[in-house]
Amino acid sequence: MKIGVCIKQVVTREWQLRVNDQKTWIRDADASFELNEPDAYALEEALRLKEKHSGEVVVCCAGPARVAQVIREALARGADRAIHVEAESLATADASTVADALAGAIRDEKFDLVLTGLQSDDQGFGQVGVVLAEKLGIPHATIIMEVQQAPSSGSGQALRVKRELEGGWFQWVTLPLPALLTIQSGINQLRYATLKGIMAAKKKEIRKAAPAGAAAPTQQILSMYLPEKAKKTQIIGGSAADAARQLVAKLRDEARVVQ
Amino acid sequence: MSALVIAEQREGKLNRATWEAIAGAQQASGAIRIVMPGAGVDAVAGEVAAAACDEVIAIDDAALEHYTADGYVMALAALIEREKPALVFLPHTYQTRDFAPALAARLSRALITDVTAVKKDGERIVYVRPMFQGKLNADVAAAGPPPHIVTFQIGAFRGDAATRGAAAAPVRKSGITIDASAIRQKPEAPFKEAKQAVDLSQAERIVAVGRGIKGQENLKIAEELSQAMGAEVAASRPICDAGWLPMDRQIGSSGQTVAPKLYVALGISGAIQHLVGMKGSRTIVAINKDADAPIFEVADYGIVGDLFEVVPAMIAELKKG
What we know:
The structure holds 2 protein chains of 2 kinds. Chain A is of the alpha/beta class. In chain A, 27% of the residues lie in helices and 29% in strands. Chain A folds into 2 domains: 2-209, HUPs (Rossmann fold, 3-Layer(aba) Sandwich); 227-259, no CATH class. In chain A, β4 (56-63), α2 and β5 (81-86) form a beta-alpha-beta unit. The mean pLDDT of chain A is 94. Classes of the chains: A alpha/beta, B alpha/beta.
């Protein structure tokens, strides 16, 4: 099975976010970055499918030069080669622009299966995977918690996948290959790169591609800001012991929710 | 501006988030029409016809009996091209997330997801949506020709705030038919995993842990606090993904929704997927070392600090009785 995995590089969870002077993006010049967590699960699922059914795992990333970091990490974890669609503007691009860039670069690869995480930890559109499927003309299913090979029906290969619905419900869906799946976090246990993997990654191919023409943006960020509080929060200060004492007193006497 | 609201139902049962989308759409746009896709949807179409709206359009086709992305995209693309609305609104449910991006791509139109509020800027509509896991908000505008497609975050609008009409709105059949053979996804019946051992929705008090708990071995500190308070232990998704607590202890959009008297969030940053499952709690306490964590936005009491220092002190204080 030839599998493409689309990954994104995002600022680390611990990074203290600050809005830039134009209020259109964060100040990320000296930020630390990491692999978007849902995409890490997509990569892991691809590696497991390859181990089971053999084939190739190709990691695809649309972003500025800095995303080479997560591409190398994915190669170190076991992906066979990579495609990097490189443009500075992709760092803040909308979902349709990113999907266009990816579609242009991977269409000729004719993957049997394309995996993405279900959404990114930065803009969180939750769109790129599904839009990419539409642009590639292949069927999709989202928020996937398990992937099985469906019994062959004579009309080519198919997958049977477990979709997560809301509130603890699930559903199995069968769809023909080629197909695209967006993967839910927690579908598997992640592996980390070994020293051997890191060394091997240095020899693996990273093909660079340019976005095929400027797609018209569909969303414009007018301003970014800290959310207003929905509630009036009493922040209790002081030492840990003081704060704990005050909090317990308030829960007893003010909110009356503990004894 | 004319707007369509795409309703969501399963087996004739309306998803309550539909009323929230109706409320949001009424606020964003004067006139709305409601679209009800499915098979045999007369009753549920009649249900939403109680909303103040121009009409309800039922896309009633056997091929839509069970939800598929392909079926919904075909049906709604055909309807939108025919009705030419300026705006299309949907609730940001898992089902919407499965088909709305493909619908937008097929129509080559903007899709703005997970919107929590709408503002007017002259003629232009400005949408507020969370970014960076809810740590920041962004005002965004849709670009390109209409219709613009917009999904509303669950809980962003109150369903009971939707304006009802003086009389039921007329219900019309769309006349759109679906080629069932073109649907590539073959769905099976939805199911629940093995019975849930704990029903957290009945708990009066909940102590929930998130990434800040750092390791499975540290869960005992949360267990001790819950014992001292008479609370159940729960968790955000990453803790259950890691297998530190069973999935039936998970609070949030993919887990249980709770509204206890007291909800204590330990080391939970408060991603929206978690907040939707607990923000109805009467009293919310957040203990987190990051002062900017979104959990503080919904908290009544907050301590910015190290939970490994604060929680033992709380346990000692509670034991003093």
